User: Fold this.
Amino acid sequence: MKRVAITQRVAVIPEYGERRDCLDQAWPRFLAACGLMPLVLPNIVEVALALCVDADVAGLVLTGGNDLAALGGDAPERDATENALVALAQSRALPVLGVCRGMQVLQQRCATPLRCVEGHVTPQQVISVEGQRTAVNSYHRFAAFESRPPLEVWAVADDGVVKAVRNPSRSMTGIMWHPERMSPFAVADIALFRRVFRVT
Assistant:
């Protein structure tokens, strides 16, 4: 199996004075269904970068959870880690796939304006994916209504919220739904991950 690096959310546990990194157990199951093996990264810049380099990963998955610090989020160490990882991936021409917050990281790096939206926290939402009506889930409070180069839009909600972006020349892709939360996993999502990370 190809190995891909995957980021984690930060959970703040005040009663223990801890900041914990955590990942839904659904993620390894989903990636295995895609023919991929996860290398789970901590939100410590130098450690995450060293792990990616030493493991010779085939790409990077930016997961959901935590708002961006610029949008009031409480995990600035995650912002720093993920931005450093995207820069590393770009320097090595590695594919990046951002999910929900992960897509917002890519949008923020391209100066795409994000703002608070309503009606996008629901287990099912029908959107237009490359012109086809498709049911996905949706669990986000911030979104964009436009895109900035080099990202282009390939999925959009009925209210104009951008639901997926990509930069084909650098193999950079973002989606605002959570493929790991689908049961069963969607065939189209598995195909997307296999295509982005070139699983044959």
About this structure: The radius of gyration is 16 Å.
